[in-house]
Amino acid sequence: MTAADAASRGETTLVLYGEGAGEAARRMLPALPDACFTPVDLDELTAAVEHGLAQVVLIAGLDEQAALAPAGSDVLGSITRDMDGGPALSAEVAGAPRRAYELWEAAGKLGPCGRELCRRTAGELERRAARAAGSAESPIAAQVVLVDSTGQRMVGMFGRMAR
Q1: What are phi and psi of 145, to 5 degrees?
Q2: d(CA 103, CA 76)
């Protein structure tokens, strides 16, 4: 489905889900109709703005969320440093971003680092929505849920509710 489909049915929320997370997304938000769910596609974020939707929920894994960070940023290493992961773990995560999840988990930092990734991803979604609207503030509230590599287990979340 698309943002246009959701809007045409009077819905105000669009759920973008990552690879393997479609079923989990529907379980997490059972009151929403199928028209509100679509695989991650940032063009749909722009369409959500254009169609006046109030909220976007992203349910995705670490790699998909990290890919939304501004180009050239070391988002995972930065998160590790900011969440007191120490220089060794930060360097290891920065050098092997594909292993960040398992490194954070082994170090007991998955919870705080996962929540911080969700916070930064929500901020990025809202920045992109504001840019699409030509506004300083986002017309869309973003909520982000981090799921494990199977797409089934929620690891962390962050976001604000639609106004």
Answers
A1: -120, 125
A2: 11
Order of strands, sheet of 55-60, starting from the edge strand that comes earlier in the sequence: 37-39, 13-17, 55-60, 141-147, 154-159
Residue 22, φ and ψ in degrees, nearest 5: -60, -45
Structure-model confidence comparison of residues 12 and 149, the more confident one: 12
Confidence class for position 163, pLDDT limits 50, 70, 90:
low
Cα(151)–Cα(137) distance, integer angstroms: 31
Nearest residue to 49 (alpha-carbon basis) of 136, 148, 132, 118? 132
* Contact yes or no for 56/161 (Cβ under 8 A): no
State the Cα–Cα distance between residues 101 and 117, nearest whole angstrom.
11
**Model-level pTM?**
0.94
DSSP string, 129-151: HHHHHTSSS-SSEEEEEEE-TTS
What angle do helix axes 42-50 and 110-133 make, rounded to 10 degrees?
50
